[in-house]
């Protein structure tokens, strides 16, 4: 046993690297007891073990170099307790964020699994869908440039972690009047489905889509490639005596956030309907 230790020996005792100790020296957090002027070698005292152990544990719980500096300076029980309580509050906040993120990722996985085994494209099906609240961007989009800026604007309103990738929350509204006129390429209003809001976001417009029966169909292609799919839905409604009772939703199911394969880019169009006989 010896009192004076080389940097590698001191690092090994605490399962750290020599570079970590050099960094602590450079930032003034943990200085060697002695530095040989001729060789530049750092030597530590075994009696510094407690301070280095404290630093290591504080780093393990996520404290910054600055916070550890503060912790070690003029230590006393009250000050140490206060700093640890503050750190505990930070950890609880991060834990809550991680729990939300886990739910978010799990829902993305579940949705993508459902999409991967969904009905074939271009088939028409009926769905009962509950009420939804949408956050919308004022004004219709006419060009791809407007689409890009509109999506960014909508995504920036969401106070959530990773809200869009691998979800079916983003889409456009096709006005009911345009459906009646069969104007399948009319400009549309961007939306993102609201979720888990305790209060409305400021500076946002909202649309409520009533729950009910929807005729739906999926197609492969980009946003503007909807004409055939939408026309097929409208023809189906005419032949089965259905009428639209609200705007249609064109929802991105898989997009460039999850695939680079053009044939995997899909949208679903949902039209709220009622039977004209009733």
Structure in words:
The strands form two sheets. Strands 4, 5, 6, 7, 8, 9, 10, 11 and 12 form a nine-stranded antiparallel beta sheet that branches. The longest helix is centred in the middle third of the chain and has 40 residues, at 77-116. 39% of the residues lie in helices and 23% in strands. α1 (7-13) crosses α2. The protein folds into two domains: 4-75, Multidrug-efflux Transporter Regulator, Chain: A, Domain 2; 118-275, Alpha-Beta Barrel (Multidrug-efflux Transporter 1 Regulator Bmrr, Chain A). With 278 residues, the chain is α+β, with helices and mostly antiparallel strands. It contains eight helices and twelve strands. The protein is elongated, with a radius of gyration of 30 Å. It holds the Pfam family MerR_1. This is MerR family transcriptional regulator.
Explain the layout of strands and helices.
Blueprint: E1 4-6, H1 7-13, H2 18-26, E2 34-35, E3 42-45, H3 49-60, H4 65-72, H5 77-116, E4 125-129, E5 132-136, H6 144-157, E6 170-174, H7 176-180, E7 189-193, E8 205-209, E9 212-220, H8 227-239, E10 242-244, E11 248-254, E12 266-275
Helix pairs in contact: 1-2
């Amino acid at each position: 046993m010896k009192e004076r230790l080389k940097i590698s020996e001191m690092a090994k005792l605490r399962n750290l690297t020599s570079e970590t100790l050099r960094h602590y020296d450079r930032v003034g957090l943990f200085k060697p007891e002695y530095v040989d002027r001729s060789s530049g070698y750092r030597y530590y005292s075994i009696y510094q073990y407690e301070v280095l152990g404290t630093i290591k544990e504080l780093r393990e719980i996520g404290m910054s170099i600055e916070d550890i500096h503060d912790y070690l300076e003029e230590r006393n029980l009250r000050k140490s307790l206060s700093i640890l309580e503050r750190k505990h509050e930070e950890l609880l906040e991060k834990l809550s964020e991680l729990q939300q993120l886990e739910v978010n990722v799990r829902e993305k996985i579940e949705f993508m699994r459902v999409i991967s085994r969904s009905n074939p494209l271009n088939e028409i099906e009926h769905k009962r869908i509950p009420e939804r609240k949408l956050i919308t961007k004022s004004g219709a989009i006419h060009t791809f440039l407007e689409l890009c800026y509109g999506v960014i604007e909508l995504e920036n309103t969401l106070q959530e972690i990773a809200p869009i990738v691998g979800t079916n929350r983003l889409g456009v509204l096709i006005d009911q009047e345009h459906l009646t006129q069969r104007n399948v390429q009319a400009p549309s209003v961007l939306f993102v489905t609201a979720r888990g809001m305790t209060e409305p976001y400021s500076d946002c417009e909202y649309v409520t889509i009533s729950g009910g029966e929807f005729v739906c169909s999926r197609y492969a292609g980009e946003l503007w490639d909807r004409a055939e799919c939408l026309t097929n839905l409208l023809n189906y409604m005419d032949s089965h005596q259905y009428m639209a009772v609200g705007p249609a939703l064109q929802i991105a199911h898989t997009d460039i956030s999850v695939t680079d394969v053009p044939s995997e880019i899909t949208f679903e169009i949902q039209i709220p309907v009622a039977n004209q006989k009733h």
